[in-house]
Amino acid sequence: MELITLTDHILATWNRHNEIVLYLLNELPDEGLTAKPHGSRGRDVARQFIHMSRVREGWLHFHQTGERPKLERFHEGPPPKKSFLKKELERTGQGVEKFIRKAIETDMKPRMFGKNIIRWMGYLISHESHHRGQIMLALKQSGLKLTEQVAVQGLWGRWISGQ
Prior knowledge:
This protein has 163 residues and is mostly helical.
């Protein structure tokens, strides 16, 4: 019988979240990358995804060095392509997973967040869920509403199902 530890459950939670972010990216039409919420002067959909990845990368760098990194911001020019976004979200998702594991198994702790790795993970999931909502709003307002299968079963159902 396989022993499933609390660490396994924590990492599975992070990985499920990252899987949902990647699923949304995969399912949106390419023309959706330039969608913005109506009346917004903010980020388009592609830049929402890259922002999530850069926030992860920035926190990982800060936790390791205590310094704020200088990361490319992608404010100007054409939006990043899906293939680039996928690669970056996979890379930083794995970085977060490794950091969480190391923080649980060693004395290394995140800076700030009460030095609580679960609180930091909760922050990341909350932050990225906010941006997923902005992405869904931008798509809906641009006439690119995702199917119920994707929006409900794909995004919410993945949290609920045992798969």
